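Q: what sequence does this backbone want?
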């Protein structure tokens, strides 16, 4: 496929998808667009909800390599001015995957099979679990993800073969005390005072400094009446760690510390995990294949070392749910500013054709490897 055609394809798909941003699990027009395009390529796509899947066979049998593109946009703005946009660049990921489909229909892989998985609801961390539940990963050997990277993390035109997302957890603590007249605080139990103890107990937790981690209070709400001892407080906590084992330890110790602190304040506490994302665990062979493809398609100078980022991606549920999967995740440098999830996010479309070539190159390497 010529460079001009590839540039035209990626830009065309991006424009079309950028114009129809949709929220998690409501990517209906997006799924229709993808399905329609894959259909026109003769690929008989399969659709479940808003997820779309298509297979492209290589010339000879081999491994199945899947490329996952996420589909959802994000809400931005305050009251009355809420609008959806693709501020996380998922429109670009879909454009790359659609152009990749056309490229491999025109020039099939020498061996193996490419599976394209268009996954809804990345932002709400629901989509990857859903897609795994459809059984779409059961016969996949290697799963490749991709994401645009901010300019301060990866220079335009450069690629990284591994974006090491951290694990994240969000917790909610509901504290119940005893109401009383503010003039008689000894007759009540202040949920706010107990909440302060909980925050302090969690801030006192320590984990090995050589590992990246954090745990902090991100919200503290209590009904406010100046002359009543508050009997209710709801606190939110956000925890991050670069390793799955460490996030488990943080979760365990934070819950224990919160329970003890609330008890010390005479209050009752209900602790629950509101959301969780696992950290990246990549396969050396898949990372090496992406590295080799980056060098072959974009040159030695375009190869950036693995990136460590505290951000999360629900992609990593795939490996947790399907432990046989070998994964890697392509970081795409595209001069993205001012940052992901910013309503005015922009990036350079010229980075997308090379991303298509890199993923095709990696699929050629991984698809042709002897089955194990
Ligand atoms: Zn995002
Ligand atoms: Zn994203």
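A:
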């Amino acid at each position: 496929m010529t460079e001009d055609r590839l540039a035209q394809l990626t830009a065309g798909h991006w424009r079309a998808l950028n114009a129809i941003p949709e929220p998690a699990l409501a990517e209906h027009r997006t799924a229709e667009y993808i399905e329609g395009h894959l259909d026109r390529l003769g690929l008989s796509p399969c659709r479940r909800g808003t997820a779309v899947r298509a297979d492209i066979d290589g010339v000879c049998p081999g491994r199945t390599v899947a490329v996952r593109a996420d589909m959802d946009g994000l809400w931005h703005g305050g009251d009355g001015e809420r609008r959806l946009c693709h501020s996380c660049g998922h429109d670009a990921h879909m454009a790359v995957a659609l152009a990749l489909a056309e490229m491999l229909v025109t020039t099939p892989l020498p061996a193996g099979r490419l599976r394209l998985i268009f996954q809804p609801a990345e932002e709400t961390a629901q989509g990857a679990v859903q897609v795994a539940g459809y059984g779409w990963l059961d016969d996949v050997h290697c799963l490749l993800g991709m994401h645009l990277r901010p300019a301060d993390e990866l220079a335009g035109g450069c690629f990284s073969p591994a974006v090491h997302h951290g694990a994240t957890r969000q917790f909610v603590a509901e504290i119940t005390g005893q109401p009383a007249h503010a003039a008689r605080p000894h007759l009540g139990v202040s949920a706010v005072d107990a909440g302060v103890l909980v925050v302090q107990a969690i801030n006192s937790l320590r984990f090995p400094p050589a590992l990246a981690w954090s745990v902090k209070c991100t919200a503290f709400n209590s009904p406010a009446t100046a002359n009543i001892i508050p009997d209710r407080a709801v606190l939110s906590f956000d925890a991050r760690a670069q390793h799955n084992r460490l996030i488990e330890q943080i979760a365990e110790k934070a819950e224990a510390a919160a329970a003890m602190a609330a008890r010390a304040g005479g209050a009752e506490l209900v602790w629950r995990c509101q959301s969780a994302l696992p950290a990246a665990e990549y396969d050396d062979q898949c990372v090496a294949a992406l590295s080799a493809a980056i060098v072959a398609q974009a040159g030695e100078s375009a190869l950036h070392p693995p990136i460590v980022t505290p951000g999360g991606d629900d992609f990593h549920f795939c490996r947790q749910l399907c432990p046989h999967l070998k994964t890697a995740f392509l970081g795409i440098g595209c001069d993205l500013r001012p940052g992901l999830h910013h309503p005015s996010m922009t990036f350079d479309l010229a980075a997308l054709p090379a991303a298509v070539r890199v993923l095709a190159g990696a699929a050629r390497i991984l698809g042709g490897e002897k089955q194990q």
